[in-house]
């Protein structure tokens, strides 16, 4: 299993951080590239759509998982 790495990003003018394993981070970068977004823009989009009581790191993992499932069903 890949160790969890903490990363920082600025979204909507404030710095925040999230922790992801490298495979999730790599997929997040790939998704952003595929959608022609910056990584920060994708993280901001996910952050805006997550329930307020949900952890950002968990929301990012769930987004990647959902993206992978949709790709497998296409």
Automatic annotation (TrEMBL):
Residues 5-67 form the Ribbon-helix-helix domain. Keywords: Transferase. InterPro entries: RHH_dom, RHH_sf. Pfam families: RHH_4 (PF13467). It comes from the Bacteria. One of its GO terms (molecular function) is transferase activity. This is Aryl-sulfate sulfotransferase. The lineage of its organism: Bacteria, Pseudomonadati, Pseudomonadota, Alphaproteobacteria, Hyphomicrobiales.
